[in-house]
Amino acid sequence: MAPIGGTAKTKKGILERLDAGEIVIGDGGFVFALEKRGYVKAGPWTPEATVEHPEAVRQLHREFLRAGANVLQTFTFYASDDKLENRGNYVADKISGQKVNEAACDIAKEVAEEGDALVAGGVSQTPSYLSSKSEAEVKTIFRKQLDIFVKKKVDFLIAEYFEHVEEAVWAVETLKTSGMPVAATMCIGPEGDMHGVTPGECAVRLVKAGASIVGVNCHFDPATCLKTVKLMKEGLAAAKLKAHLMAQPLAYHTPDCGKQGFIDLPEFPFGKILSRWDVHKYAREAYDLGIRYIGGCCGFEPYHTRAIAEELAPERGFLPHASEKHGSWGNGLSMHTKPWVRARARKEYWENLLPASGRPYCPSLSHPDNWGVTKGDKELIQQKEATSEQQLKELFNKQKFKSKVVA
Ligand SMILES: [Zn+2]
Fold first, then answer.
1. Domain that holds residue 289
2. Is 297 a known ligand-binding residue?
3. Contact predicate 28/305, CB 8 Å
4. What positions does the entry give for Zn(2+) binding (predicted)?
5. Residue 202 assigned to a binding site
6. What is the pLDDT of residue 364?
7. Ligand 1 centre from 342 Cα, in Å?
8. How many domains does the chain divide into?
C-alpha cells in the first residue's frame, strides 16, 4: 500500500507542478457543503460565512486538505460587489465585499500552511454581465476582487463558473494583469456556452486571453464534464495551442441535463449525490484523458476528494491523511460484525453495485426546465430590492406552463 501523507512541504507553484507532470487534486464544493451544515443559504450562496462563521469555513478547508486536496480555493464564489447587493442582499451595506474577500484569503492561507497546498483566489460569473453591463463595468467588478487577492498574496487565480465565454475571457484578461498564473473553467457541457460557442472554441479563446489551465467546473456530472474537456482538448490541438487541462465536476448524477446543466433540473439544488465509488471511476477516466488538475465542485465533500487521492495513489505514490480512517475499497468492512457486510470488503463489490434510488414512484430521469432565459433577458436583470411577491407570483405561474414538475 502507498504511504500516507505524501511528499515534503515543497510549495512548488501550480505551473511548476503541472509542468513536471504531477497530478494536482482540487478541493470540493464549499457552498453546498456549508449549506448542508447550516452556514450558507441556498440561493445567494452567502460567501459572508467567511466573516460570520470563519470557524466553519476553516474546518471545511482542513477537511479537504486532509482528504488530499493540493489547492484550497478562497471561499469567494459569488463574492463580487454586485452580487452582494443583489435582490435584497445586505452584505455590501452591512459587511462589505472587501471584508468578505479578505477573510476568505486569510482563512485559506492559514489552513494551506498546515500542508502542501496552494491558495487560489477565485472569481465567478457576475450579475452585471447577465444584466448586459459593459466590458469596462464587468472588468471593474473582477478587478476589486483581484486587488484583494494580490494584496493577500494568493498563489494563483481561478476564473470559474462562466456560462458565457465572452465574460470568462474578460475575467481572464483582468486576472492576467496581476502576472499570476490563471486557470479558467466554464460551467458548460458538450453543447458549448449560452451563445452557442463550442467547447473547443471556448478553450482556444481562454488560452489566447492568457489562461494556462483550462477546463470545466460545476453544472454537469463527471462523465459529461470529461466529454466537454475532451472537446476542449481537441479544439486546442487543432489550434496548435498548449494548456493544462482541469475538471471540477458536480458530485451529482445529471444524465438528464440539457445545455443549462443541473440548475435546470427540478431537484436543483437539492439533488442526488455521487458515491465515493463513482468518484474513483471519474478520477481514473480524467487521468486517462490527460487531465492533471482533478477536483470537484458542488456536492463534492471531503470523502469524494479522498476518493480521487486514493484512486490515483499508485501514480502519486502516497495516500492522503484521511485514508488513515478509510480502508481502500471498503476493506475496513472486513472488521464488521455482520458476515454479509464483511462480504462487501472488496473492490469488485463496490465497483459493480447499482444503487437503488429508494424512491419507488420516481422516474429514473427528470425533465430540465429549459426556460432558455439568459444574458440580456428581463428576468435576469440585477436589482437591489428583494424579489417582490408579485415577481415571485409571475414566476410561479410561468413554471406551471413551462415545467413538467410533478405536483
Ligand atoms: Zn458548483
1. 14-332
2. yes
3. yes
4. 218, 297-298
5. no
6. 78
7. 36
8. 1
